[in-house]
Amino acid sequence: MIGYILKRLLSGVLVLIAVALITFFLVHHIPGDPVSQVTGEYSLESTGSREEIKIREAQYRQTAALLGYDKPLFYFSIAPRAYPDTLYKILPYTRRQHAKQLIRSFGNWQAVSRFLTDVRRWRQQLLASNADAPGRTRHMQLANQLALTTDRQQLEALLIQLQQKGRSDTALRAVSDRLWADWEQMKQGRRADLWLPKITIHGWDNQFHYWLSSFVRGNAGISLVDQKPVWHKVKKHFLATLWINIPALLLSIVAGIFWGKWLARRDARRPTNRFELLTYLWLAIPSFWLATMLIMFFTSPDYGAWTNLFPASGLGTWSARAPLYQKIQIRLAHLILPVLTLSLPAASFIALQVRRAINSEMSKDYIKVALLKGLSIRRVLNRHAMRNALFPVLTIFGTVLPGLFAGSVVVEHIFSIPGMGRLLLQAIYDKDKYVIMAVLMVTALLTVVNLLLVDLLYMKADPRVSLYEKSPAIGRTK
Fold first, then answer.
1. pTM
2. Which of 91, 94, 371, 457 has a CA between 20 and 30 Å from the CA of residue 359?
3. How many CA atoms lie within 13 A of 136 on its CB side?
4. How many domains are contained in the chain?
5. Does residue 28 lie in a domain region?
6. Residue 264 forms beta bridges with which residues?
7. Is the alpha carbon torsion for 134, 140, 143, 145 positive or negative?
């Protein structure tokens, strides 16, 4: 028993690690700069004095170090040979993307690095110069264009323009000659290196290890939107999700078992069961359509005074001095419609599985013997078939809870319930990466725990189930 639990826990840990890997890489390939979400938008052509730009860049680097974005992504990386091993150290994010595009165009990192350094040094000289200096504004515009352009033809045209302006300006001529020399070296790059892979080992100091180790220790990071701890937001919304999912789970199980039993009794009398078609219809109805119909017909007086029965959104609010019965009344009124929306499809699914399991039991020999002895169909169904039919049905309960959590994303959004589903949708809209990863990991953890509990419950309910297959030859477990 203990060995089986440890084996299942180990497999659950491996599943969670796989989910963490997939979630991490998918989320980190969302376009955008997470650091700029915290510090504000950072551009290569940032305006302001030299000191202001230095302060903004220092703040950016400090935030990047706090979030771990100055580290490599994983324990190792596979990239073209033309890319440098320390590409992740180029900050800010826009500068790194600009460098990557130039490497893709020329395949010569050393020359690209010198070119970008010379352009940045020229911009710093312009920022440090007198604002009223002749041609400063035009020179700054040209420097910004050189810092942003990645197209070969446009870049060459800008350098030719810079050369023409340098003929009448000694200082500008030195800059032009230096950048043109960099340009000539960039054009001599080996583009073949872009097709040759290179494996780089980064060790433990990487973003994935930093995030996963912090997550295991109970630190899921901070939100990129409001800089609040992620666990604080997840806990708050998780309680709201439980308010609708636990009643929906209990209602779907109870209603599904009784509805499936009733369908099986009708099958024993009439092979053609029109109520089975109704069950399939409930199962096929989309949650968003059912939620919309319930709101339309039961939350407004548009179709009669009797249709304005329930509130349309939220979980209800009350004053601090409200009595307990009033709090219960308000909460129940807000829960009925979302719980029905979640539980009806799940109950239909369970009912069909119960019906199928009962019909399978009713065709067995011991049931036929009981009927030949004169027992009624109801007694045979309740005392014999139902008990054995519920054992295989236990296995499907492991899929009900994850299905409810998946459905609650839509239901919470439609009914404006501040739960995990709505938090996930808002995090996706805001590109709040740490919140997305935390919600998905919590959902995966609940699924793994739920499947483990179902396995143990199935073993407890059916003593015929053995956790280990015994070898008839040596009598040992294998």
1. 0.82
2. 457
3. 11
4. 2
5. no
6. none
7. negative
Asked whether residue 268 falls in the same domain as residue 174, the answer is no
* CATH number of the domain encompassing residue 455: 1.10.3720.10
Is the domain of 320 the same as that of 385?
A: yes
Structural domain including 179 reads 35-216
Residue 76 host element (H or E) = strand 76-80
CA distances (Å), origin 88, targets 33, 66, 69, 80 = 13, 15, 8, 14
Contact (Cβ atoms closer than 8 angstroms) between residue 111 and residue 102: no
Distance (Å, rounded) from C-alpha 137 to C-alpha 140? Answer: 5
Q: Are residues 234 and 302 in the same domain?
A: yes
Q: Are residues 70 and 194 in the same domain?
A: yes
